[in-house]
Amino acid sequence: MASVNKVILLGNCGRDPEIRYLPSGQAVANVSIATSTRRKDRTSGEMIEDTQWHRVTFYDRLAEIAGEYVKKGRPIYVEGRLKYGSYTDKTTGVEKNTVDIIATELQLLGGREGLGAPAGEGGVAPQRASAASPPAAPQRAAPAKSGFDDMDDDIPF
Q: For the residues 30-39, what does the mean pLDDT come to?
């Protein structure tokens, strides 16, 4: 039977990435991502914001890209898989459970601040990276002739 372990997060970075290198030379970067939901409290009518924090780990080239471009407060999109673990707290001796997201895709969102773009250039400027393959050069297809190229663009709506 097939199974799926996939996580998609769209949130803001809570801190700058921490990058380290394993003895094998493999790059590893860790970040925390905050996702928020808002709801209205039934009794008071107030809007309540619930923020969840997620630990995300990047490996190899994706870790290097995250270390270079991901900054605290920046919105990012991450795809990955869940990895459960546990450890024993040294001070209390109690076993604690952990949930990490092992990232396979990263997309930077928001403006291009800090990426060398001219000031005032805003909007969404996605920068996409994947752990599976290096980014490919964009290819542009020739526009198809539709037969409507010579029509006026004076449409009243």
A: 92
